[in-house]
Amino acid sequence: MDTIIVVLKVGLLLYAIYSVIVYMSRRSDNRSALKDIRTAPVLRRITDEEKSALQPFLMGQGLTVDDDVRELAGVFMRHGLHAQGGSTEHNTIDDVEVLLPYDAMNYIEAHNQAQVVLSKKGAVVIRLNDFDLLEGRQRAQRQQAQDAQWKRGDVGALPTLEEATPGVPGAALAAGEAAAPASDPAGPFDRYRRGEVDVLGQRTETPEEVASRMGRGGWASAFAWVGAFALLWIATWDATRGAQAYLAGAGLLVGLWAAWLFVRTPAAEAPQPVNRVRGMLNQIAVVNASNASIQNVSLFIGDKLSLTLPAHWRKAEAVPYGEVIEAELRTSDYSAVGFGSKWSVADEWRRFRPVFWGRHLLHLIVGVLALGAVVLSAPDPRGEAALAAQWVMGGSETAVYTDAAQLADKVPAWGRTVRVAGEGRCEIDMNARSQGNDVVPVVDCTRVRWNGSAPVIPAIDVPPSVLALAGPGFIRATENYAAASLIAMMRMQMGQAADPLAVYRARENVPMIVRGFDRSVAMVDAACKDGGGLSPQACENLQRELVRAIDATVEKDGVETPVSTWQMLAASAASDQANASLMVSRRQLAEVQRAVQQAVDSVVAAKIDTARAAIVPASGGVVLASPLRIDEARSRPAEGEEGDRAPPQSDDGADSSLLGSWARLQQHATADGLKRFSLEGLVTASGKDAAGTPQVRIDPTLDASRMATAGAYTLWWLLASALVLANGLLFALRLVQARRRNARLDADIATRPVPGATGLF
């Protein structure tokens, strides 16, 4: 991984050096091209009007130009350099850097003809294809006048950018004078069909319109919740052990602040101006300038105003495309708050109050992610909560119980530190499953019954023929001593005598000799023929697996032929035949033993399933539970006790077969099943089972030194659970309410009149 990172860094560095070299090369070409154009012929002198129109662009950059106008022709190209969020770009025509005033950029073509004047750094465009500097200034002045009229809401027709203005070009419009609607003898609508738009007046937003623009938000609260959970996560780090309490407190405060942000009603923003306008509503497909395959359908009033309708209004069939309409638009973003006489955002807000469910969905997602993170980090919330409770309550005294009756009379409270010691019996898990997925009761030492009755485990009747298969005499295998001696001698010659791994590998490679295999074949046949022995299916499986695992051969007509059936293997295993004694590897021997155990377990599982109903579980006393085996749980010695204890007994290396498991159950039901235990830890749960037996769960793994960590985890659990529960319920409720509200609103929209030209004049 480090190599990949180094390669990527070197690649990025080389690419950056290449980009700088390319940029510097292009800038050198720009300077050379500018030097060349200075020797080009002069077409004319710049006029005073043109020089005046250039002043805003020259003064802003501290540039001066000469009075000679030259011709420049060529391809337009933009190049530059981007680094760390900043960029430097240059516009060039025929490699000469050019300054494009006003809207000259809109007139760029594949091949460009321009007239320019020169400065020290580049050329300034006066004419470019169909662009003229003075006309560009007039368009800019008309645009400014149009913007000023729109913002002020002056009554009158909005100026047209391309029309000529009598007198001094753009003077009246630049001064902000609104053009009065012209009378047209051809009809009141003809001027609107030509794209004209009238401003009819201006007002401010109503409180309902302000609320519809603001919405209810939710992002600030969501980010605050993320910050709260981040603080709690940091509080669980070992590196912050000295400041964990402060970090957890800060996380709680941020969480409370996030909840306040969520439930509070946002302060109303200042009302914005709203203009009432009249014009023809057009729906136009606008092609994306950077990707011609993308078309965006936009709404316009005339050819001057882009209109944004509420989404549910655009779905209505009554939208009068191609007709003259009156609309009320916000001056800031041209969004509609009124459309005709019956379409009003404020009216809808009053009659059909919006239901906001998105904020609940957002917080539900944040809560689910936080809950998933804490589940992965701390999967035992009961233990963490108990340790946190002890931290908050400041309790550190340890209660000692040496008698089950004492514990039953006074069950320790949740979060209390206790030490129990006595003699008990591990519980029996009646629903455990074996490796073969059979339901087999097993001894569960994570639960101990203290001072209870002994369970009753019945015997199971397994046929002797099946027991013979499970016995050690079924297959007798010994190492091939000659081969073992040869391998040992070779290892000594190669200097591997002191290598434990080499010793293990060499031992695994030593072949095993199985003698008297005909006896094993006879035992399999006896178990298959016994009426209470192996079932036909189990017998067939065992014989097939033995043939496959042993992989024996017989000589036939001077050729070694593989043994492929049980009958061939049984015949070749007779006392005077080739396979009476077999040479197999340890892997083959293990496969044979595994196949035999599976066959025996198939019989024993059926017997156990019948005997399960006769098992009488232990009862009475007190049940102790722990995440560890209680006979293996570590605890501090009490005063007066010796610190050294006998090591706990373990089932490692015990017989894993079902027969062995049942034998351990039977032994467990005897006096040998009672064992001494000593357990000290934190109480994470207490109560009684269905029979009224007291139960106490004690966790010895919870360390008092991580109480602050447990407090942070517990707080994390509580806040995440509350966030998921509250917002899950509210999201479901608000979603149902929103669907009902939308259905009523759609029904109302269907009855509204078309907001067209009818009744306007």
From TrEMBL:
Q: Which family does it belong to?
A: Belongs to the IgaA family.
Q: Which parts of the sequence are annotated with region: Disordered? A: 172-191, 634-657
Q: Give the Pfam families listed for this entry.
A: IgaA
Residue stretches of biased makeup (Basic and acidic residues): 634-645
Q: How does the protein associate with the membrane?
A: Multi-pass membrane protein
User: A single GO CC term, please?
Assistant: plasma membrane
Record keywords: Transcription included? no
> Which residues lie in Low complexity bias regions?
172-188
UniProt-recorded name of the protein: Intracellular growth attenuator family protein
User: Is Iron a UniProt keyword of this protein?
Assistant: no
Report the principal subcellular site: membrane
Could you tell me where this protein is found in the cell? Cell inner membrane
**Domain of life, per lineage:** Bacteria
**What are the UniProt keywords, alphabetically?**
Cell inner membrane, Cell membrane, Membrane, Transmembrane, Transmembrane helix
Segments spanning the bilayer are 6-25, 219-237, 243-263, 360-378, 715-736
